[in-house]
Amino acid sequence: MSEFSSRAATEADAQTLAALNLACWRETYVGLLPAETFAALSLGERLDHWRGVFQMKGDRVTLAMDAAGETVGFTHWRAHELALGGRLGRGGEICAIYLRRSAQRRGLGGWLMRLMAEEMRASGLKWASLVVLRENLPARRFYEAMGARRFGHELSWRSVPQVAYGWRDVGRLAAHQ
Ligand SMILES: CC(C)(COP(=O)(O)OP(=O)(O)OC[C@H]1O[C@@H](n2cnc3c(N)ncnc32)[C@H](O)[C@@H]1OP(=O)(O)O)[C@@H](O)C(=O)NCCC(=O)NCCS
Questions:
Q1: Strand 71-80 vs strand 91-99: parallel, antiparallel, or unpaired?
Q2: pTM surpassing 0.85?
């Protein structure tokens, strides 16, 4: 992954994250979100979101940069107590993984998933889960290629159907090739 680098984000990155988040959502969700929901996406709402995330303390946010130092992606995860009924111990909830289109399909997403899984494993977490828009088929193919299995019932985000995916063993995800 010499083409890309990453670093932990801090509260000082909230503005950068808000702008990157909005740009990624606009690239990803055109046609997937209802027009009025899409039109209502705003930088101010994203800035409030990221400032709130950095108040949470336990949340882990990572920024990814390309070879020119341009910020091209981010990930966000937190420890999760409840999913899968607690049967498998504490797990990690992947809240977000987004790359600018220009940085996609070059292995960066897989590298960032392994990085998150390694952080979870080092934090004593056993499994990982996430939710994704049901119609976001490229992302679903990516998670499936990373070894994820679907579980649970359909959910919804901003009135749009979502499905859940999980990995029983974050150690295996961390080592996934
Ligand atoms: C989904 C995402 C994180 C994947 O990261 P990426 O760097 O593009 O993916 P990688 O290059 O690491 O791909 C790893 C494997 O996943 C699968 N895959 C990735 N993108 C795929 C796609 N669009 N269609 C089908 N399979 C895909 C492939 O098997 C791929 O291996 P290959 O390139 O050798 O065929 C990235 O494309 C992205 O940010 N997309 C837009 C935002 C988004 O939808 N985020 C998820 C929200 S829940």
A1: antiparallel
A2: yes
